[in-house]
């Protein structure tokens, strides 16, 4: 497949033709135009070795901000302070840390090719990171991809307890600040389910995604000027409001 810059798009097969495992297509490359085309059509790449596999799982795992919540222990950790929150200050460090093998797994799904591709998307203002600091040390964080008025979370990591969770709370604040009603979590994890993420049919996800893409870009190309404390507090308030409705 030809390398596509971010201004060009291709058409993927209909996600509803996916295999039972959610595979819609295989092959191609991770050039910006190809990756953005995939996300705008409800697909994402996920593979360990060539060829690239393009997924659209059914069901899809989604976190609606109105259902976002977390427990008292994390709330206490946030109140106790001592954390610094930044955005897009250390994208390369974050994705590199996300790529490191986990204690419970011998490998990683973030290939060298994916790391390079998402770093390029970051330089283009499409991929973003949330960093959580303890003094001058990067304690945790996450990264994901912004397409129009939607955001897909890709991966997170912690070097200190709760650091990735704090990054998620700050990300929820950014989404709320930008008027984005949900976070695409792609596939089920118990970690995200604890925050209120749930599975929805693929058809419903695509119905929700379409208007968000048509809305155009709602996120700034660079998040560095966003205020960490303010976004974190927004995330805390979202959780409080959700608990009041339950």
Search tags:
2 domains, 36% helix, 246 residues, globular, Aminopeptidase, single chain, alpha+beta, 3-stranded antiparallel sheet, 4-stranded antiparallel sheet, 8 helices, Alpha-Beta Plaits
Characterise the protein shown here.
By secondary structure, the chain is of the alpha+beta class. The protein folds into two domains: 15-57, Leucyl/phenylalanyl-tRNA-protein transferase, N-terminal domain (Alpha-Beta Plaits); 61-245, Leucyl/phenylalanyl-tRNA-protein transferase, C-terminal domain (Aminopeptidase). 36% of the residues lie in helices and 22% in strands. The chain has eight helices and ten strands. A four-stranded antiparallel beta sheet has the order 5-6-7-8, sandwiched between helices. β6 (127-134) and β7 form a beta hairpin. α3 packs antiparallel against α4 (112-123) and α5 (163-177) crosses α8 (228-245). The radius of gyration is 17 Å and the shape is globular. The termini are far apart.
Summarize the structure.
By secondary structure, the protein is an alpha+beta fold.
Supply the number of helical segments: 8
Strand content: 15-25%
Strands of the largest sheet, in order across it? 5-6-7-8
Distance between the termini: 49 Å
Mean pLDDT: 95
Number of structurally distinct domains: 2
Oligomer: single chain
CATH architecture of the largest domain: 3-Layer(aba) Sandwich
CATH class of the largest domain: Alpha Beta
Helix content percent band? 25-40%
Identify the overall geometry: globular
Q: Please give the radius of gyration in angstroms.
A: 17 Å
């Amino acid at each position: 497949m030809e390398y596509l810059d971010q201004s060009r798009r291709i058409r993927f097969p209909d996600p509803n033709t996916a295999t039972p495992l959610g595979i819609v297509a295989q092959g191609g490359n991770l050039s910006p135009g190809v990756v953005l085309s995939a996300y705008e059509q409800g697909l994402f790449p996920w593979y360990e070795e060539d060829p690239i596999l393009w997924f659209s799982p059914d069901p899809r795992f989604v976190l609606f901000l109105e259902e976002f919540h977390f427990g008292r222990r994390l709330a206490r950790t946030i109140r106790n302070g001592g954390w610094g929150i930044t955005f897009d200050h250390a994208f390369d460090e974050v994705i590199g840390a996300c790529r490191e093998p986990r204690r419970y797994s011998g490998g990683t799904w973030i290939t060298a090719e994916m790391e390079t591709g998402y770093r390029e998307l970051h330089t283009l203002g499409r991929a973003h990171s949330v960093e959580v600091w303890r003094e001058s040390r990067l304690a945790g964080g996450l990264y994901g991809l912004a397409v129009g008025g939607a955001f897909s979370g890709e991966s997170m990591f912690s070097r200190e307890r709760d650091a990735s969770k704090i990054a998620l709370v700050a990300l929820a604040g950014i989404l709320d600040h930008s008027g984005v009603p949900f976070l695409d979590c792609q596939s089920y994890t118990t970690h995200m389910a604890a925050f209120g993420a749930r599975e929805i049919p693929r058809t419903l996800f695509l119905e929700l995604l379409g208007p968000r893409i048509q809305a155009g870009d709602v996120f700034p190309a660079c998040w560095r000027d966003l205020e960490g404390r303010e976004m974190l507090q927004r995330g805390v308030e979202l959780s409080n409001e959700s608990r009041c409705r339950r």
